[in-house]
Design brief:
The chain has 130 residues and is an alpha+beta fold. The chain has six helices and three strands. The protein has a three-stranded antiparallel β-sheet with strand order 1-2-3. A hairpin with a 2-residue loop joins strand 2 and strand 3. Helix 5 packs across helix 6. The mean pLDDT is 80.
């Protein structure tokens, strides 16, 4: 039977996901989980933000995770962003919302994220080796 169709082709190479893609998917799933717990995943971006304003802890977690996603997304190809838009439209809507902003250049080790009129400040402390 092999002679009629020729040699069997070698198996296809398994493409491995890059670290950024794995981290991005993990962060997107984290935001989805937080939005699901806050019971606002099915709403529009403005309705999600209004719902998150009732739960400040969830809002801070979503905002900081969106900032991490934004940081990773800047290093990825445009095709990955289109895949994100298709697989997680709620997360993409929050990223693209005019109510979401990351302040750059505020200071060393400080990240300021604004979401829905709230400012979330995260201080990053460096560990000193002694």
């Amino acid at each position: 039977m092999d002679l009629a169709y020729g040699d069997v082709p070698p198996p296809l190479e398994v493409t491995q996901m890059r670290e950024e893609e794995v981290e991005l998917k993990g962060l997107v799933n984290k935001v989805k989980m937080i939005l699901e717990e806050a019971e606002c995943l099915q709403y529009s971006a403005t309705a999600m933000i209004a719902s998150l304003q009732k739960n400040p802890d969830a809002m801070a977690a979503v905002a900081l995770t969106l900032a991490e996603i934004s940081n990773i997304a800047t290093k990825m190809a445009p095709g990955a962003l289109m895949a994100l838009k298709g697989s997680a439209p709620a997360v993409f809507a929050l990223l693209a919302s005019p109510q979401f902003m990351i302040a750059a250049g505020v200071g060393i080790g400080i990240t300021v994220v604004a979401l829905g009129g709230y400012k979330i400040i995260k201080k990053i402390q460096a560990k000193h080796a002694e």
